[in-house]
Amino acid sequence: QVQLVESGGGLVQAGGSLRLSCAASGSIFGVNVMYWHRQAPGKQRELVATLTIGGTNYADSVKGRFTISRDNAKNTVYLQMNSLKPEDTAVYYCHYSDIRGEYWGQGTQVTVSS
Known about the structure:
The chain is mostly beta strands. Helix content is about 0%, strand content about 60%. The protein has strands at about 1-5, 10-15, 20-25, 35-40, 45-50, 55-60, 65-70, 75-80, 90-100, 100-105, 110-114. The termini are far apart.
């Protein structure tokens, strides 16, 4: 089992920055994929960023503004969000995937005011 706990969400003005953290605990496999998703009210959950052993991928809506990274020593994945826009307002979820299955965090709210 893998447990994920997100933190770092909050209220920020447009143009500001936030860094989300996702601390993973439990049985972490060396080969895995980490994702950040988000879900705005009334909208479907959207994949924002992916981190694999081969590199990173981003949704077009966040490319150039968001950066996903990890600290293996801390089993923590980060999402650095810069130049935030009101349309980035959503609950952000951390998601871990390995050969055994999929695991999700509880989500952290990000609100960007105009």
